[in-house]
Amino acid sequence: MRDAVQSSITETCEDNYANIYNGVREGYSGGYRAEKSGIWTESLDAGDIYGRIDKRLKAHDEGGEHIKYSNGAEEYALSGLQAEITNTPFAPSKQNAKQMTCLAEIDLEVPLSFGWQSLPPMKTHLSIKGGYTPKF
Length: 136
Known about the structure:
Layout: H1 2-15, H2 17-25, E1 32-34, E2 40-42, H3 49-57, E3 60-62, E4 65-70, E5 73-86, E6 100-114, E7 117-132
Antiparallel strand pairs: 1-2, 3-4, 4-5, 5-6, 6-7
Helix pairs in contact: 1-3
């Protein structure tokens, strides 16, 4: 589960490559674009992280919960995704060199049963980090 979410947020960072390229070409590594006025502004896109997760895990959106079924029974449910993309500083130096990162948090619920008895579902909160670092 963690790997699928991490892959999805890393892809989102990679999708910002079009915005990052201009900055890399100009000597910066963040997602910035030059306006017609000559001023550089931050340019990031969060994309559709849930869509990527659903595609990877074959889950379906059901009213805010993204549920995966197996043989008609619920296998797990994901909900409460929060993602934050952090850009690198404009004109980074060796002192403040950072990579573009995406931090995501999501709740996972897995129904449990043992034998013929139903148990309370396992609930956990996952925190995942992904990022993009250009290679020159």
